[in-house]
């Protein structure tokens, strides 16, 4: 007789509650079983002590007799330290492929370049007020020099320039 350690469902609709049982592999899921060795309530919090209750001594006995645990029960046994379980998932399966990795690297390089450009712009903006102040001073000096030149200009020079401008306008 092939023995299996599996879950037998109880509870009402949408409110599952499981018994961890030892049963003949040919019997139905919720049918006849040999012995109940624990319970599992998936509705409780994962860190709750009441979520999984397991009689470790009986589980060891049934494993020594040849009972085969299902995947879920094997997880419970591994967590309880009764039986070591090898991980079945391929750890490399979730890793991105070569092209996705290349795209991610390119995106990271572009982001880094954008951050550097932003830092340079910020540094230039901080240096710009000093440059603007110097430019304003130079502009003010230019305006003062121009004003002095206008004051120094004689009315005769202004009169000479005016008829020449009128002749050009007429011609």
Automatic annotation (TrEMBL):
Alphabetical keyword list: Ribonucleoprotein, Ribosomal protein
Entries under InterPro entries matching the protein: Ribosomal_bS16, Ribosomal_bS16_dom_sf
UniProt GO MF annotations: structural constituent of ribosome
SUPFAM superfamilies per the UniProt record, alphabetical: Ribosomal protein S16
Pfam family, one: Ribosomal_S16
Keyword Cytoplasm on entry: no
Basic and acidic residues bias spans: 95-115
Region entry Disordered, spans: 81-171
NCBIfam families (alphabetical): S16 (TIGR00002)
PANTHER family hit by this protein: 30S RIBOSOMAL PROTEIN S16, SMALL RIBOSOMAL SUBUNIT PROTEIN BS16M
Name assigned to this protein: Small ribosomal subunit protein bS16
